[in-house]
Predict the structure.
Amino acid sequence: MNDTILLYLLAINIIAFAAYGIDKYKAQKNMWRIPEKTLLGLAAVGGALGAYMGMNMFRHKTKHLSFKILVPLCLIVWVAALLYWQFG
């Protein structure tokens, strides 16, 4: 697999994970929040694993149906795409 793709996926997943943690913190402190479309967008552009891990570790957005469906769906799509690209 291309090193550039691996570095991109590592970076976007770290960013997604951090974004969920930051948003949870801001929610608890009644501060300005990260928009939901941004959090979902991070999952869609390759940060689905980080988003999923952040949702579970920080217990954030786990009751929102859109997050419960779309984040795992993005993860499945990315894994399938990477497997296809690697072995397809």
Residues 3-28 form the longest helix (26 residues). Helices lie at 3-28, 36-58, 65-87.
